[in-house]
User: Fold these one by one.
Assistant:
Number 1:
Amino acid sequence: MTRDDARALDARDPLAAYRDRFTLPADTLYLDGNSLGALPAHVPAALANAATRQWGDRLIRSWNEGWFDAPERIGARIAPLIGAAPDEVIVGDSTSIHLFKLIVAALRLDPARRTVVSEAGNFPTDLHVAEGAVTCVPGARLRVVAREDLADALDDDTALLLLTHVHYKTAARFDMPAWTARAHAAGALMLWDLSHSVGAVAIDLADADLAVGSTYKYLNGGPGAPAFVFVAKRWQDCLDNTLSGWMGHAAPFAFEDGYRPAPGMARWRTGTPGILSMAALDAALDVWDGVDMTAVAAKSAALFEILARAGTALGLECVTPRDPAARGSHISFRHRDAYALTQALIARGVIGDFRDPDILRLGLTPLYLSHEDVWRAGDILRETIETAAWQDPAFATRNAVT
Ligand SMILES: Cc1ncc(COP(=O)(O)O)c(C=O)c1O
Ligand SMILES: Nc1c(O)cccc1C(=O)C[C@H](N)C(=O)O
């Protein structure tokens, strides 16, 4: 693939116009939108409006003018991106907090089932939260097994199968209908973490019971943006939220001593939502209105091919599945000094990230990366490896986050 080939792909890219809806530094090739999505250009004005007009002028009245309903209203905007109904999704809290609520709820549903099954190497918060959640339910336990042993781990003690749809390191994607069906065949509930798949791949939760996901990655909601939680309609009146805060009460402003859960998704609220973060997410979702996920998937596959070929030509091991249906929208290479390599790339304006111990991870966000951008990133990767630039001792010092 030459630079001209990449330009030719850009010339017929149906998503090309979306690039102008984002603010990105001119000297940067941003391949980390799978960790923190880029800034949609109109979001600062929406934030300023939320601060100066809604907060500054309207003050407390704003709770009646859109703030109170924000979790449900914004959740309904995310629903079509995950194949859910508008009244099956709300936003608020973080993915970790939603995981806690749902794991405890699933364990409390059927006292005869005591085990949560999850995958070794799942994103740490999923495993850590599950580890804590099982201590809140008598007799409950967490069973963490390798991917190839998951099917055998499901039995008549399994209350919940907790899987991350697209793996944060390798981008390997579970077959959602098949795994939901396996969980159900064992009599368990299925909880999907969609953090690395929402906005990256087309999702149809279909028969799934529960889901959570981050909005600050492909949905570009901003750092720490409120996460979403999905509960299938058939479970909404049966599952209880242990973090039973006043905002999930049937009548929060009746100020009753006793807790009565709100009907529907509102019971998954806990405390007062962070309205400024909600405002940023709400505005960021404008970009996703009407986006054709088939076009996103096709472009993601084309961007992947550009980097996969560049990396393979350099002798890098690609740990991401080659089949587009079996992966998300990032590509990961194994390198014995992946940390230094990542830092050398960042110093050259290619922002990706390192995942311990040996993974260089590059996010492919079809809304704001062109084929030529990704070709250039591949070319800078080539130059960095061929000149052994990553061996500079300056790149060996570890930062806290990337
Ligand atoms: C699969 C997965 N779940 C959850 C999270 C994050 O959860 P939280 O937003 O609560 O930090 C991440 C990334 O940070 C993730 O990759
Ligand atoms: N949530 C993050 C944060 O607060 C700081 C830095 C990175 C993150 C991430 O999103 C990490 C990400 N989930 C990952 O896949 O590695």
Note: The pocket of 3DJ (ligand 2) is lined by residues 35, 168, 401 (CB under 6 Å).
Number 2:
Amino acid sequence: MNATDSIAGRADPEGAGGQNDQEFPDVPQTVDVGVAAGDGAQRCGLIAIVGKPNVGKSTLLNALVGQKISITSRKAQTTRHRITGIRTLTDGQGGGTQFVFVDTPGFQTKHSAALNKSLNKTVMGAIDGVDLVLFVVEAGSFTLADAKVLSLLKPGTPTLLIANKLDTVHRRAEIAPWLRDMQERHPFAEFVPMSAKNPKDVQRLLQICEQYLPVQPWWYSEDELTDRSEKFLASEVVREKLFRLTGDELPYTSTVIIEKFEEEKSKQHNRMVRIAATIVVERDGHKAMVIGDKGERLKRIGTEARQELEKLMDAKVFLELWVKVRSGWADDEARVRSFGYE
Ligand SMILES: Nc1nc2c(ncn2[C@@H]2O[C@H](COP(=O)(O)OP(=O)(O)OP(=O)(O)O)[C@@H](O)[C@H]2O)c(=O)[nH]1
């Protein structure tokens, strides 16, 4: 395939800051293909979102998945890939497309020390067998860290270059030469300049992704969203904030247990969920680290986790966090099982 011909997606003209056709004169557009074309066929496949920290992967994932974040913890744990989100777009005739997004652990966390050893292996494992990779960078920029991530990608899997945060690029004229430069670096299937914060761009990206997913029956029900999965999501979000805000010092064996997950009736709010979670660490020193000076860090973990959960679950969330020391728990198989890791 000619790489120039394959430059595809452009962000929406009114969307990510008002670019128009004149501004990307030599960047051809893809033909618009409607999502869920309406022939009753089902498409389904795995999509990995990778990129260095802070390029907007989480923002993009949340936007692609929409409100119905769906973590199917049980099923997911039994497969090689861990599912972070599912989006099903129906065609009204029993068909449509199910986009299954998978986690790429090495890039989702800044806790690099603990992961470094197995980083390459983990990431390769996560990417292996997916139908499509979205390689996210900031539009107009390509750093050493981007190159490092890119070097882990296999040429065999179709990969889209997601040039995110297009809304922050003021000199649009520089994007076309940059795209050409990017096309030298990897055999990208398509280029998608966009903003993860622009719903129209996200919709367009789904349309592009759809073409890479095979025709096969959906793996999950159309609206998969169980109490269990939200509970799992809660523990994952707290865990992510925990590692993000403690940096590299906290051992990776620390975990989060959801003690309470209750939906309550509320006149004020559409949905209201009360969650109590315990962060289990191995030593007193780790506990102090998590709590921070005057409880400052624990408070921040709680606030950030609550805010994210409110967005993901579309609910008012009350989150109570505790920290417990349970020395050596990671070695105790029975206990590990009782925490839900099997
Ligand atoms: N202006 C603008 N900001 C964006 C866009 N997408 C993401 N951001 C912002 O970029 C920052 C990082 O976004 P995240 O989604 O957390 O990035 P990430 O790649 O998941 O980061 P890590 O979890 O650290 O790997 C946040 O402040 C987002 O609000 C975009 O399209 N435009």
Note: The longest strand covers residues 255-264.
